[in-house]
Design a protein that fits this description.
Elements lengths: L4 E9 L2 E8 L8 E9 L2 H9 L15 E2 L4 E8 L12 E4 L24 E4 L1 H5 L3 E3 L5 H4 L2 H13 L1 E3 L7 E3 L6 E5 L4 H12 L6 E6 L2 H10 L2 H6 L3 E6 L7 H5 L8 E6 L4 H9 L1 E9 L14 H6 L3 E3 L6 H12 L9 E6 L3 H6 L8 E5 L7 E2 L8 H11 L7 H10 L4
Parallel strand pairs: 11-12, 11-14, 12-13, 14-15, 15-16, 17-18
Antiparallel strand pairs: 1-2, 1-4, 3-5, 3-7, 3-18, 5-6, 6-8, 9-10, 17-19
Helix pairs in contact: 4-5, 4-11, 13-14
């Protein structure tokens, strides 16, 4: 039997990422072989690149046993071991749930040598399949499949918030407060954008939504993508507020809530000490602050008002990743077109540009970067393709017919005509 080869981005240590070709092991009877079509770059992967083996999801012996990067991936099944042939067939599209629920926190796209999104071919082990981490996907595009995981993290956050059912009881109702007031602080990045989209279009919506950003350009772009007019059609009064770094905006934001009482739900999308303190000060009675941003510093802390915790019943939650049901809910949102993920898919690239791009994630402009793992293509803004070839000219024409957004038609053309890695 011919040895199966893959090309993949592996990490060997701090800032040591390498695109390499190597042999995969023969697929076992309880495993699945798959072809990865898309992955999306995540800030979590950047943190991995900066911590190396110190990261809790990575094995200690990275230098000798490197692992494949990329945990937001979508692909096509190519071969199925006997154990799983009653559930999966070659040709099935799937999305991976990276979280295995292990005590050591090891996950797909972080911790293993033969499976991850930044690879052409992978072998998916029995443990992942048994735990339901291979989810059927029927969406129109593969790039939306690569955005299921980040969307599921937002959905998880919205579920994790909680409120008292009655002030004189100790029972809580889970989820954001329907018809309440919500703030998304530092909400102009990709995850903030997903949260805005979900807050406006999900069944359980706030009546008032305030989104803040520290730069005017990003805030204006968010306002264009998620307009107050569209929000109003869905029963949400949407405000965008510029909050430069270091500014005191608490009274300005409170004034946007009924009677100036503050917010029922706050999502903090940036890990900044002063922002935690300000977010807590914006909470209404029984308000819930979701610290959504993942800090790189294990000793990150901030000053908070415990008087409010005691007398106003404020509370705090934090979520990291999502569970399988959240992933299924995200897939349903995409398949039902509840949200429009094309608005955050601002860049595309082939596997050839992944190593350098990961190391530059914090400084890269735009939203989500979609990796086409089978292709050789430079990191490119979909709204500003160079047009140096007939392929790019055609892609530009297709994109212009879709409001300047990446889309299933452009993707299909790209997959057919772009050079393989």
């Amino acid at each position: 039997m011919k040895q199966l080869k893959t090309k993949a981005v592996r990490i060997y240590g701090v800032s040591d990422l390498r695109l390499e070709e190597f042999d995969l092991p023969e697929m076992g009877d309880d495993e699945i072989q798959a072809k990865i079509i898309t992955d999306s770059l995540c800030m979590s992967t950047y943190k991995v690149s900066k911590q190396g083996a110190k990261h809790k999801k990575l094995p200690d012996n990275l230098a000798e046993n490197p692992v494949i990067m990329g945990h937001e991936f979508c692909g096509v099944i190519e071969a199925v071991g006997k154990k799983w042939q009653h559930l999966y067939q070659p040709g099935d599209k799937f999305v991976a749930q990276p979280n295995l629920g292990r005590a050591d926190t090891f996950s797909l796209g972080y911790s293993f040598p033969y499976v991850g999104g930044e690879a052409t071919k992978v072998i998916i082990m029995n443990e992942a399949i048994e735990k339901g981490c291979l989810l059927p996907y029927k969406g129109e595009s593969f790039f939306e499949g690569a955005l299921v995981e980040p969307l599921s993290c937002v959905i998880a956050g919205f579920k994790a918030n909680f409120h008292l059912r009655d002030r004189n009881d100790y029972d809580h109702t889970m989820g954001i407060k329907e018809g309440g007031t919500m703030a998304i602080l530092g909400g102009t990045g990709p995850m903030g954008s997903l949260a805005i989209d979900y807050a406006i279009h999900n069944e359980k919506r706030p009546s008032v939504l305030v989104v803040t950003g520290s730069t005017k350009e990003k805030l204006e772009k968010s306002k264009k993508l998620y307009s107050p007019e569209d929000a109003k059609k869905n029963g949400v009064t949407l405000h965008y507020v510029l909050t430069p770094k270091g500014s005191d905006f608490t009274e300005e934001l409170k004034a946007l809530t009924p009677d100036g009482k503050g917010f029922d739900d706050i999502f903090l999308m940036v890990a900044q000490e002063d922002m935690v303190t300000k977010a807590e000060a914006l909470l209404a009675a029984d308000g819930c602050l979701n610290f959504f941003a993942g800090p790189a510093d294990s000793k990150f802390s901030a000053r908070m008002n415990f008087y409010n915790l005691h007398y106003n019943a404020t509370h705090f939650v934090g979520t990291s990743g999502s569970n399988t049901q959240d992933m299924k809910d995200a897939i349903a949102c995409i398949e039902n077109k509840t949200v429009n993920l094309a608005k955050i898919a601002t860049h595309i690239m082939g596997l050839n540009d992944v190593c350098e791009s990961i190391l530059q994630i914090p400084s890269l402009p735009g939203g989500k970067k979609i990796v086409y793992s089978q292709k050789d293509f430079p990191l490119s803004d979909v709204q500003n393709l160079q047009g140096n070839s007939p392929m790019e000219e055609k892609m530009t024409e297709i994109i212009s017919r879709h409001d300047g957004l990446w889309n299933a038609e452009a993707e299909a053309y790209f997959l057919e005509h772009c050079k393989d890695i």
